[in-house]
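Hello support,

Our group uses your service weekly, and this is the first time we've seen a run hang past the timeout. The protein is Lysophospholipase L1. I'm not sure whether the cause is the sequence or the server load. Input pasted verbatim:
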Amino acid sequence: MGCVNTHDDVPRWSSYVAIGDSFSEGLWDPYPTDPDHQRGWADRLALVLNDRRVAAGAEPLRYANTAIRGKLLRSILVDQVPRAIEMRPDLVSMVGGGNDILRPRADIDRLARDLEHGVVRLREAGIDVLLATGFDAKAGMVAVTRSRVGVYNSMIWSIAQRHGCHVLDLWGMRSLQDWRMWSEDRLHLTPEGHTRVRDAALVGLGLAPEASDWDTPLEAQAPTPAVRRARENAEWARTHLVPWIQRRVRRVSSGDTRTAKQPELSPVLRGGEINAEDRD
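Update from on-call engineer: The timeout came from a worker crash unrelated to the input. Re-ran successfully.
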């Protein structure tokens, strides 16, 4: 079965569950009315799907998001996939493996086999699946993972083709090559980045994007002076890199004490409301 492409601007899915790690949880894209809670591309996608359904006279979308920052792929498959199947949604976005690939000894073949096992379980339950390729990291801390991400991406495309999945092609997004799309930690997107990924997800689902220029790169800016760049790199290392390394040494995750922000299928939220306690 080939990849599904609907070419229909009225979404057929009446329920959607996002599962994964910090990328799908939505770091760092806080709700304007409640900055303690994160929005992100998946919440933004759910809102568009809901509004298009309502505008077409269909019932509103029900949405859940069980993604939690720091989760490895195995945790996503063991904890989140069964819960998603229990909810019996029409659509699940499953994005994971990025945290695994940050580990130097990541087994890409094993990750792909595990991912495919999760896809098979979802598809056998009659659920449409949206996968995502990894970012094309050409610079920064994660640049050393570029070759591993590239191999993993090729496997994701093959998995999608075998099982009739949709694909959110992050690797191909030109706009994400601009650091202005990335937050201060250089690992997660800004609100603008999440908005553009939302449109890429719509395209991956065979729907029209909200903005026609969703992947148009930003206008070029003047190069950052070397002294300022060095100062910013030092501040980033002190604020983000060192704590990340310390967590790896202690074998703890930023998501160890967190719960899913929207664990049940519910009406789509528009502000900073939240259906579960989101605690540190």
